[in-house]
Amino acid sequence: MTMRVDAKVVMLGKESVGKTSLVERYVHHRFLVGPYQNTIGAAFVAKPIQVGEKVVTLGIWDTAGSERYEAMSRIYYRGARAAIVCYDLTDTSSFQRARFWVKEVQNCEEHCKIYLCGTKIDLIESDRGLRQVDYHDVQDFADEIGAQHFETSSKTGNNVDELFQKVAEDFNSISFQFMTEETGIDLGQKKDSYFYSCCHS
Ligand SMILES: Nc1nc2c(ncn2[C@@H]2O[C@H](COP(=O)(O)OP(=O)(O)OP(=O)(O)O)[C@@H](O)[C@H]2O)c(=O)[nH]1
């Protein structure tokens, strides 16, 4: 079966922050328990999402967080319309890594919207002392870079649907803007031209 993808979305962030778990929760409504498995390279899934009367299909690339695969991740965010930059709320170093990815995306993909996602909030709900990344610090950073900010749990499902729904809604409203500004231009072509207008270094 082939499926037309409207928008490319890329999951970025340090290894084991929970990128795969977020996609798994959102797409398959489940949380996998058992030994943690590194993503190797990247995984792809297409997910149609209802936005008002329209269906927007997100093509989600789940990249490997290990620094070993850093150069490969660049291939996956090329042409992305949204980047979900994840950090683990119980790990300060993962937030430093998130800042790195934000810079990368800002430098290379001017049409890519950034979403900051603090993961594993369920751990903090059961023990407040585990929080290592302050909500307000991230919100200030989000305001500075014009990003949306979510705190989620793939274990309980908390805020996961809201995150992806927001990505699809934002994409839909941006496309709508193109359509009204450029009447007569085929939206598909317009979008494609953006798909390839990224850095080529
Ligand atoms: N409690 C809790 N654990 C989580 C959550 N999300 C992920 N985990 C756990 O964190 C570990 C890493 O999760 P992954 O989803 O594989 O992380 P990843 O970012 O895809 O890792 P890489 O593929 O190596 O980049 C696993 O043991 C998960 O079970 C969450 O919301 N809550």
TrEMBL record:
Pfam families: Ras (PF00071)
Membrane topology annotation: Lipid-anchor
Gene3D superfamilies xref list: P-loop containing nucleotide triphosphate hydrolases
Location(s) in or outside the cell: Cytoplasm, Cytoskeleton, Spindle; Cytoplasm, Cytosol; Cytoplasm, Perinuclear region; Cytoplasmic vesicle, Autophagosome membrane
GO molecular-function terms, A-Z: G protein activity; GTP binding; metal ion binding
Any one GO CC term of the record: cytoplasmic vesicle
TM segment ranges: none
EC number: 3.6.5.2
Subunit (UniProt): Interacts with ZFYVE20. Does not interact with the GDP dissociation inhibitors ARHGDIA and ARHGDIB.
Name of the protein this chain belongs to: Ras-related protein Rab-24
Species annotation: Coregonus suidteri
Lineage: Eukaryota, Metazoa, Chordata, Craniata, Vertebrata
